[in-house]
Design goal:
Structural class: alpha/beta
Largest sheet: 7 strands, mixed
Radius of gyration: 17 Å
Shape: globular
Distance between the termini: 28 Å
CATH architecture: 3-Layer(aba) Sandwich
CATH superfamily: NAD(P)-binding Rossmann-like Domain
Number of helices: 7
CATH topology: Rossmann fold
Helix content: 25-40%
Strand order of the largest sheet: 3-2-1-4-5-7-6
CATH class: Alpha Beta
Order of helices and strands: HHEHEHEEHEEHEEEH
Strand content: 15-25%
């Protein structure tokens, strides 16, 4: 079969039995931007048999510097639509659950063996992490790839062991989770690099979910480079596969 050939180089490293094992695993990826997009693709290239992709957004010109599906020809198209096509082109046999929506606690998604959190909106991120902890779903979370340039400063640890807890996004996540009684048990990809942007630009966003919820929030637009987000996504995918190997 052609799909056997697709994963033949994987098997030279971890063997045929584990490759077959991955076909029965399901990972949910929340956020298909610079981090989540690379995470989703690496999981499918590894041979994950089922993947749920969740994102509400469309490609914009400002995505082109760092996101896999962001091209001049794809501006304005839903990221979920683009990734569904791309991931099927990598492995035609992969099962893809597509959820084109903004994540809130009301959103229902298929039960997964692992969750990759690449959400950059604080309220949604906290809600998803709380859900995973309460439902004992293993999760790895990106602690922000914006405002950084050096991918060698990324590392994986438990959230309680983050070295730079004073970075604004990180400190907000830790604070909100602590109010919920969650101080550990979440693996994260964090950075030792000090965040930097030449100027602060904020914008208001208004979103209507499929449930009719109207969500309004202000956010600061981070600086971004082509190097860090993709590496963080690859780190997340690596960690998930390695956890399955060690499980």
């Amino acid at each position: 079969m052609e799909t056997d050939e697709i994963f033949s180089r994987n098997e030279l490293f971890w063997g045929q039995d584990f490759q077959c094992f991955l076909r029965n695993k399901h990972v949910a990826v929340f956020g298909l931007g610079g981090v989540g997009g690379y995470c989703a693709e690496m999981l499918v290239r590894a041979g994950i048999g089922q993947i749920t992709i969740v994102d509400f957004d469309t490609v914009s010109y400002s995505n082109i510097n760092r996101q896999l599906v962001a091209l001049n020809s794809t501006v304005g198209i839903k990221k979920t639509e683009l990734f569904e096509k791309r991931l099927k082109d990598i492995n035609p046999e992969v099962k893809i659950n597509v959820i084109c929506d903004f994540y809130t606690e009301k959103l229902v998604f298929p039960k997964a063996d692992f969750v990759a959190d690449a959400i950059d909106t604080l309220r949604s991120k906290i809600s998803l992490l709380q859900y995973c902890i309460e439902n004992r779903i293993p999760v790895i979370s990106s602690m922000g790839a914006g405002n950084r340039m050096n991918p060698t400063q990324l590392y994986i640890c438990d959230i309680k062991d983050i070295e730079n807890k004073n970075a604004p996004f990180v400190s907000n996540v830790i604070y909100q989770l602590k109010k919920l009684g969650i101080e550990s048990g979440i693996q994260v990809v964090a950075s030792r690099e000090k965040p930097f942007a030449k100027e602060k630009i904020s914008e208001k966003e208004e979103i209507c979910t499929s449930f009719g919820e109207k969500i309004e929030f202000s956010k600061i637009i981070p600086s971004s480079t082509p190097f860090v987000a993709c590496t963080a996504g690859i780190f997340m995918a690596y960690y998930i596969i390695e956890e399955f190997r060690n499980g």
